[in-house]
Amino acid sequence: MLRVRFTADDLLRVTFAREPAPLMELGLALAAMQRIGLPPVFGRWQQSLRRTLPRGARPLLELVPPSGRGPLFMDPLSRGLDDGLDAVLSTPGGYVRSELDRVCSAGRRPVTPWLRALADQDRDAWRLLADSLRTAYDSVLGESWGTIRSAFDAERAWRTRLLAEEGIRATLAGLAPGPGWRGTTLEFDWPEEALLELDGRGLVLLPTTVWSGWPMLALRPGLPSVLVYPALSPLPLLGEVPRAEPLAALLGSTRAAALGLLTRQRTTTDLAAELSIAKSSASEHAKALRAARLITTERDGKAVWHSCTPLGLDLLAGTGGPGPAPRAQAVGGRR
């Protein structure tokens, strides 16, 4: 049982990550690859990972145990792979050593020559770590990252609406299996007994598409803790969801694709770039969706931000989401 004790300040400081963390997702994927007894939905995906993981990525298995509880310096919240790698490579030496000691002393990973070299800040060891992380990301997540990002956006939109309708306690209790709340302590099913105090720094919610079962809690010194929990739709299913045509028939293919993108807040410029249309056309589509009360629009300085309304989310949920965004033959061309 995992018990997470909240203060009033913690409950006021619960936030949702703005985007998925590439290296966090990669670490959990490598852990899931090694686990026994995964749900059947992960079976074929797990077998494929075991078969295709490149030799250049395999050193990471010395760091990542099947439990997913590897060294925290490998799992930064970041705004992309390069940003994440920069964070890993700039980790203070003392924190690296303490995390490696924690992982190895708990019996999760044996002490190998490479891990000793990492703890001693050996340049060649750290160069191997960076190369292995990049190779593993390209092999395990690279082709799927757009799908993972879309699933994250949908999950975030749904949980945000749940928060508005049912409140913070119900939202947090529904993230993973467990008894729920006992006073200000939230309990989740977990393979060990643990009590964790958030100490008023708050909590960041981060869904993952490659992990199942119990949640993972990362305590970060001086920063809000991160609760990583399984998203509603796991990665192996995301590519199999049939694309719905009714929404495109109702709104038009470009407008339906725009609505699907707006499960995450985007600017008019973002919409134009992702739909490969002119900014003026993107503005027209947003105006039509706003008139139908499917999106809302806010101005922040020169930027105009759009996002789905609850009605828009209901429409997307009822049709399974829009099909893939059409590609323009020429910028500004009509659909």
Automatic annotation (TrEMBL):
CDD domains (alphabetical): HTH_ARSR
InterPro entries linked to this entry: ArsR-like_HTH (IPR011991), HTH_ArsR_DNA-bd_dom (IPR001845), Metal_resp_trans_reg (IPR051011), WH-like_DNA-bd_sf (IPR036388), WH_DNA-bd_sf (IPR036390)
Coiled coil, from the record: none
Protein name in the entry: Winged helix-turn-helix transcriptional regulator
Protein origin, superkingdom: Bacteria
Domain HTH arsR-type, chain residue ranges per copy: 223-328
Keyword vocabulary terms for this entry: DNA-binding, Transcription, Transcription regulation
Cited Pfam families: HTH_5
